[in-house]
Structures are given as structure tokens and as C-alpha cells.
Amino acid sequence: MNFEMQIANMLAKNIMGFIEFVRENHENKNNCLCLNRDKLYQLKLLVQEFKFQVLADELKRINRFTWDENYTHLLVDRFRKGMGIIEEYVENNYDDLFIFTARLYTLNSLSLLFCKEEESGTVFRE
């Protein structure tokens, strides 16, 4: 299996895990980790608005047997646009949504592997 294909499948799996984590935290009424239920509901709506489930399913489908570079990059770019807004929302409401930062960090790291700048080797940070 192609290395990029494995990363795409891992990203799809982690997106699905993030969606499930948001859903479970929203449905669990006895959850003491999230203090403000309205902010958690807003996070759930953002995940639905940016169609993370569709993006994850499509990433998984197109990278099941072959590597489709152009379509994968298109899907990852769409995911990153929604991810930026969700990251900002979680950062602005950190006191209530801190539990999601680790998952967001993982998703961000995996999706950055598909950025055009990173692939060409032009971006180096220390």
C-alpha cells in the first residue's frame, strides 16, 4: 500500500473518531468535562456544517485500493478549511471545550502532511 494512501486512510479514520467523540460528548448528559452544553452543541453543528462525515467517507472510499492524489488533496483542502474554523472556535472557548484540543492537534498534524508547501519541501520550521 502506498504511503500517502495509508496517511489518507488514517486521516479518514481519525476524522470519523473525532465526529464520534463530539457526538458521544454531546449525548452524554452526565458528562462533567464540558461545562457549557450550548458550546458543545455549536461544535457538533460546525462538524455537521462542514460535512466532516462525508469528507471522511469519501477519503476512505477513494483510497481503498488506489491512490488518487488530486482528489485526495481536494478533500483534504476542504477539510482544512472547516478545521481552521473549528480550531478557532475551540480555542476561543477553551475553558469549556479543552477536551477536544488533542484530537484537533492529531487531525491537524495528519492533514498538514498533504499540504502542497510541505510536499515540495519549501517550508522548513525549527
Describe this structure in words.
The chain is mainly α and 126 residues long. It has 7 helices and no strands. The chain has helices at 3-27, 37-49, 52-62, 69-92, 94-97, 101-112, 116-120. Helix 1 runs antiparallel to helix 2 (37-49), helix 1 runs antiparallel to helix 3 (52-62) and helix 3 packs antiparallel against helix 4 (69-92). 21% of the residues are buried. The model is unreliable at 117-126 (pLDDT under 50).
Structural class, from helix and strand content? mainly alpha
User: What order do the helices and strands follow?
Assistant: HHHHHHH
Radius of gyration using CA atoms only: 15 Å
The main pleated sheet reads as: none
Mean pLDDT: 87
How far the N terminus sits from the C terminus, by CA atoms, comes to 31 Å
Determine the number of helices (DSSP H or I, runs of at least 4 residues).
Answer: 7
Task: Indicate the overall shape.
Answer: elongated
Report the uncertain regions: 117-126
User: Approximately how much helix is present in the residues?
Assistant: over 70%
Number of strands: 0
